[in-house]
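Table S2 (continued). Query chain:
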Amino acid sequence: MDSISIEAFAKINLGLKILGRREDGYHEIESTLQTISLADLLRISKSSTSGIGLHVEPNLGISDDENLACRAAKRFFAQAGIGDQGVEIKLTKRIPAGTGLGGGSSDAAAALHALNALFETGFSTEQLMALGFNIGSDVPFFGRGGTAIASGRGERLQFLGSTKCTESVVVLIPQVRLGTQRVYEKWDTLSERDISRDDAAATHHLRNDLEAAALALEPALTEYLDFVKAHATGPFGMSGSGSAWFALFEDATDAKSV
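Corresponding output:
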């Protein structure tokens, strides 16, 4: 085949604990990850000229070198030893950047899978995700998707068998965008008192240790938290490093109403 299309699904974090800062500068975490139906779309086609062409809609102003799908393609070609090949990548973005939904990492994982099929290189999923790990800590998870408990930097994964999230998920995406590194750096400055909170009035509020840092950086996000807290009937929280909030509903009608 000469081209392949693939969806790159978003994720939410059903809680996120930070266990401490590591000697390598990263943070030790524990989080339950769940893919959801919101997805970017990639179409990768073989090209008559060598190199990687990238077209993103809508244009987010991110250079090819910064785009994780493009970086994944470069690593793939280097590992496969077929650097004289060329591809065109068309990426339709539906997952907003800077929201903690993992769009960039999911794009990278999807690109690796698509290239593996397109060039029939026969890499296993584990080999592909090893290629993607240094691109983004969430890339190994997106290699399989579903539900998993992530630890370490996010690379140690315990997939929860055939577990499937059957609830409807409402995702609230503020205009505010947050960079992951910026949020973690803010977390490093907070005290334990800043991070802890009383959830007695919100029993379904899933703990995300980065929430306090995100709210400290962007106090306007409190308005979105208050909205979700007021309307949620089940588990709710902030995804990743923010800025997106989510709520799970057993009843799809309730979800649509909210």
